[in-house]
Amino acid sequence: MNKTMQITWLGEQRYAAQNATGQQLLIDNSGFKVGVGPMESLLAALATCTAYDVVEVMKKRKTPLAHYRVEIEGERAEEHPRRYTRITVRHLASGAGVTADSLSRAAHLSHDRYCSVAATLNSEIVVEAALEQAPEPEAAHA
Questions:
Q1: Residue 54 is inside which H or E element, if any?
Q2: What are 105-136's pLDDT values in tens digits?
Q3: Dist CA 84 CA 41 (whole Å)
Q4: What would the DSSP string read from start to end of 82-107?
Q5: Among candidates 16, 59, 20, which has minimal Cα distance to 41?
Q6: Which residue of 33, 47, 85, 138 lies most exposed, with the fewest beta carbons within 10 A?
């Protein structure tokens, strides 16, 4: 199953990312940020992917979570392209019957088996740059 996103430049270093069904995400690396930066959005993608898995695993094991959050921190290299060199994901949860061991098992299942974002970050992927001349947008009629 392929996923697509269309990224539209809004000026400065601000972009609207839209998926095939119209949901949007604001990516912002300008001086006055109103959205998250690209590298922060990567952290958010990993954190929400694993959170989804952990919630589902705990529910299936009959220990649903009452409170849950993920804290994620990425350490970046000093030299360009300043990629992440280490990412730490902290799962903080509570609920009836939830133990540190059960939460740890659910988190490891996610990170090692289910989370597609974690699997992507842990693999070699092919990234291709395809270049096309875009048509000029038509001027709005007054």
A1: helix 38-60
A2: 999 999 999 999 999 999 999 999 999 998 88
A3: 13
A4: --EEEEEEEEEEE-TT--HHHHHHHH
A5: 16
A6: 138
- Burial of 101 per CB tally in 10 Å (0-12, 13-18, 19+): exposed
Cite the beta strand spans of 38-136 per DSSP E.
67-76, 84-94
C-beta separation of 92 from 35 below 8 A = no
Dist CA 51 CA 53 (whole Å): 5
pTM attached to this predicted model: 0.88
Report the alpha-carbon distance of residue 130 to residue 142 in Å, rounded.
Answer: 35
Handedness of CA 110, 115, 117, 120 (dihedral sign): positive
- Say which residue the tokens 């269309």 belong to: 6
Token pair 């001349």: residue: 133
Name the token pair of 78.
């000093």
> Closest Cα to residue 61, out of 37, 29, 96?
96
Cβ(100)–Cβ(106) below 8 Å: no
Instruction: Kindly provide the residue ranges of all beta strands, DSSP E only, lying in the chain, ordered along the sequence.
Output: 5-11, 14-19, 24-28, 67-76, 84-94
